[in-house]
Amino acid sequence: MAVVGDSGLPHDAGRRDALHHRQRLRRKITEQLKERIGEEDIIAAGPEKKLRIPVKGTKRWQFILDRGKGKGVGQGDGEPGDVLGPPGGKSSPGEAGTEPGEEMYEVWLDMEDVEELLFAELELPRLKPKAQADAEAADTIFNDIARTGPQIDKKATLRENLLRNAKRGQVRIGGIDKPDLRYLSYRELPKPRHKAVIILAMDVSGSMDAGRKRMARLFFYWCVQFLRRRYDQTEIVFVAHTTEAREVTEQEFFGRTESGGTRVSSAFEVAEGMLKVRYPPADWNVYVLHVSDGDNFTADNRRTLELIRRLTGVCSLVGYLEVRPQARGGSHKLSAYYEKEAGGLDGFVHATADDEKALWPALRRFFASDRVEEVVR
Amino acid sequence: MTGYALPDLQEIDERCRVIAIEELGFDVPDVVYHLVRPEEVYFAAANGLPARYSSSRWGAQFDQEYGRYQTGRGRIYELIFNTRPVHAYLMDGNSLVAQTLVIAHCLGHGWVFEHNRWLGAVDRDIMPRVLSAAERIADYMGAHGRDRVEDFLDACHAVAIHQPQAQLIAKSAAPEPEHRPGRFDMLFPEEVAADRARVAEERAALRRRFPRDPEPDLLGFIEHHARGLEDWQRDVISIVHSEQSYFLPQMRTKLLNEGAAVLCHQEICQRLFLPADRYWEYEQLNSGVVQPHAGQVNPYNLGINLLREIMRIATEPDDEERERWSWAGAEDPFDRVRTVLASYDDEALLREFLTPKVCERSRLYAFERVQQDPSRIRVSSRECDAIRDVLIPQHATFGIPYVEIVDADFRGRGELLLEHRHEGIGLDSEYACGTLAEMATLWGKPCTVATVAGKDGAERVWFTGHPDGRSERHDSVPA
Predict the structure, then answer these.
(1) Which letter, b or e, does each residue of A131-168 get, where b requires 16 or more Cβ atoms within 10 Å of its Cβ?
(2) Checking phi first, is residue B395 left (phi over 0); if not, alpha (psi -120 to 50) or beta?
(3) Which residue blocks in A84-193 are alpha helix, DSSP H?
(4) Can you say whether residue B149 is alpha, beta or left, with left for phi > 0 and alpha for psi between -120 and 50 degrees?
(5) B-chain residues near A100 (CB < 8 A)
(6) Chain B touched by A357 (CB under 8 Å)
(7) Consecutive sets of 10 residues in chain A, 377 residues long: mean pLDDT of each?
């Protein structure tokens, strides 16, 4: 009948759907990473090693018969009793065979990819430009047009040509000559420098058992990774406390075990002291994050809250995460106290995490981008 | 570049049609050929139908298949759709000989589409519906978010294949028990009263049961009875359901269809009297199409060998065959093949014509999977009976487990209970769990399937999937 040189289809439909597929895959990987940030093998992978992530949710589910039990018919060589290699091939589209539409994706990611995927949606909230901007921080932007220069601006040149022709009564582009030429020009913009410091405070007292310490450290690990990757100019200060608090090195912070009672206010006292001496809030965006198991010397709660109130006045954010793997949360816990006394305190965010799966939502709460702040709170 | 233009293909089509109609007796329908870029052929193949709704599902398939093509590990020559008129895609860049083979091949498909009674159940005017569905789904993606609609589509596709396969046969409803009055009822008032009570109770139980009879149409049942579905979701279910019903008759006539297409291209190309170099190229392509596949059955190969066997019986049968088929040795081979192509499906074709000769010619063997390594197989037999025992049931169900909804108020909580009608082999646990979890998102409540496990299916097991994606296995009826 007829042979036509056209499919009657949109020409790029295949690429379009393939792109959707890849985007969807990427989102699924990210979803899974969020659930797995509590797993050691992700952290233990280190910067060089690649992680193998099987992507769930990409299989095409169907009822199929027990694999390995099925009988089949094949073609070709082979005598009864011979063992042959994997049965080849796959079923064609639109058709279900005995084999499932096996479409399992495994991706190999290095730490950089992992963090890229994860941290895309995190942000330091309420980051403000501070007065003491460093002079050398400048951005080059091409936002100007000049009559001389190295790089021609085609659009502006054509516009100029059109204008010049129009003045002579011709509506056309053509006869481009020297007076039409326009060049891209740049300007150096002083970039507002967001100086920021994060004070990470951890309860290392005796009541922080192994499970809780592990969770606290996982949380801080991801905080530090996030900050180092996204805000390389940010300073990070580590504070460990029992009944007394003191600044420690990063190694000490992540390696430390101590025993003793708990006085949370001590950590905030140290933080406040730092603001006075090293990080005046006029020059610095200050973030304070505290993690504990929620046990505090009861008489200290009032003092702690007092300090938090003072800090929220000058800091961009004060955060508190309660880790309680065995979820025996009671009314004496700090989270309950904060809930009662500090509900709606602006600039103070507190959260609880019962297991590793809750770590990502907690990170989201603290590092929510400003746009979604209302929703998160 | 390839040395031909559209008019050349048009001329080839004309010559092939003349041969098909006048020499072979196949009154082939008109076929519209589209000469398109490989990318488009692969995309239409990934969709299953041209211009279907946009979905990452097709994107994934396209990525995989087109990737295989680009790296030289696979090649589609032809793609044909059972629509009115029949549309076929030719891949631009194939040689003229390849296009000739494909055009002749498509005429065979076209004839089967037009005449086979199973394919007659297909709505061949499906294209307007496909286009309208594509628009609606695009709208839903705009309104509810692409991901949400894609997830919902995935859930629909997980169970869409479970539709009644033989629309020609309608099951009658199970009879209700009733009390039959007898001549001596008056003498036994107590017994009669007891019997009436029993009947009344059974009838009440039957009426309470929902669905009354087991329902094999999973997606259709959900579409009509699931609560809490939004309008767009119900529409998406109906789209997937109705498009799937287009594919089912094709699945049940795969061998016939491919056999007919190969028969046509072989017979037509023989009669075209190609020059030697072209004929050589044709022979190479042809043997590539019908070469046996290890570990599975190449439908082109088995299909043509079954049809050739029928033609042989029609012309030179042995005594036994003469006895068995009245037409043996007494009918034009093409006439007999056409009769079979018009009224058989694959199961019937195999039952009647999968003879030891065909098994030998197609070099078929039956295999079992190696217990320790299911990716490897052990050849178990080359006997025709053993092969028939495996191949015929496979083509009766297309390898899809038979699963029915037996209770829509399972555990008194409105959950779904499905029963796997097994033949000694249970469902794969991982896939059952995944499928049930998808199904549960459609139904809105947990879905459970009863099946078997262990050697010879001796143990009963239940799998349950929840709307939140969890799933579990039970060793007794879940309470």
Answers:
(1) eebeeeeeeeeeeebeeeeeeebeebbeebbbeebeee
(2) alpha
(3) 111-119, 154-167
(4) alpha
(5) 428, 431
(6) no
(7) 69 81 82 76 62 68 80 84 64 35 59 76 76 52 69 85 86 82 72 76 83 85 84 84 86 77 88 88 87 84 88 88 68 78 81 83 81 39
3-state secondary structure at position A18: helix
My answer on whether omega of the bond before B85 falls inside 30° of 0, hence cis, is: yes
Task: Please list every residue in chain B whose beta carbon sits closer than 8 Å to the beta carbon of residue A9.
Answer: 36, 40, 43-44, 50-51
Contact B399/A96, CB-based, under 8 Å? yes
Nearest-Cα distance to chain A for B173, in Å, is 26
pTM of this prediction? Answer: 0.74
- Give the A window 42-81 contacts with B, CB below 8 Å: 58-81
Size of interface A-B (CB pairs under 8 A): 278
List of chain A residues whose C-beta atoms are within 8 Å of the C-beta of residue B50: 7-9
Total residue length of chain A: 377
What distance in Å separates the CA atoms of residue B177 and residue B345, rounded to the nearest whole number? Answer: 37
Tokens of B394: 């496979």
Is this complex scored with an ipTM above 0.90?
Answer: no
Taking a C-beta distance cutoff of 8 angstroms, is the pair B55, B146 a contact? Answer: no
Q: Hey, are the CB atoms on A17 and B54 less than 8 Å from each other?
A: yes
CA distance B430 to B422: 17
Q: Which token pair is A229? A: 């990757």
* Whether A21 and B362 lie within 8 Å, measured CB to CB: no
Q: B39 near A14, Cβ under 8 Å?
A: yes
Q: Which of residues 92-111 of A touch B (CB under 8 A)?
A: 93-98, 100, 103
